[in-house]
Amino acid sequence: MVRVLELRAVGWAHSFPVAAGARAARVWTAGHLESLDWARDAPDTVHSVLLAVSELVTNAHVHAASTAHLVLTWDGRCLHVSVADADPNLPRPRRSDERATSGRGLAIVAALADTWDVHPGEHRKTITACFRPPGGTQHRDGTDLHGTERRDGPP
């Protein structure tokens, strides 16, 4: 017997050159989060996503001196926030002195995200953070990821 597994997700991708800055990535992300039904009911999660986007894009710009390639993917359980840059060197945790003005980006992402990981590549790396909002597996148009209509009560 063959079992068929269907997975649907929605996603967006955009590249942010160093000149665009992290603000452009936050604004772009906020616009796409508005299409996810859970976003209006989970302002803490939205804030965490936006702060993580800012940190990850800034890291790509500052430490890799490269364009930040941002991908958002909502799979119905987790919003995956991935940022790739042109530096294949993997980040190393640093102890930051309380007077230091940098060195806390990945610690902030780790504190905000439900999970995070680094994916090495030959000429790049990608850092992905997962954010699981409370509830919500639906889009604002009333459909879930399988295209079925939302019901406000029991069937």
What can you tell me about this protein's structure?
The chain is built from three helices and five strands, in the order βααββαββ. α2 (43-63) runs antiparallel to α3. The model is unreliable at 138-155 (pLDDT under 50). A hairpin with a 4-residue loop joins β2 (68-74) and β3. It has helices at residues 21-33, 43-63, 105-112, and strands spanning 10-16, 68-74, 79-85, 115-120, 125-131. The chain has a five-stranded antiparallel β-sheet with strand order 1-2-3-5-4, covered by helices on one side. It is of the alpha+beta class.
The average pLDDT is: 84
Total helical elements = 3
**Range of strand content:** 15-25%
Work out the number of β strands: 5
- Topology as H/E string? EHHEEHEE
Chain-wise SSE layout:
Layout: E1 10-16, H1 21-33, H2 43-63, E2 68-74, E3 79-85, H3 105-112, E4 115-120, E5 125-131
Antiparallel strand pairs: 1-2, 2-3, 3-5, 4-5
Short account of what is shown:
This protein has 155 residues and is of the alpha+beta class.
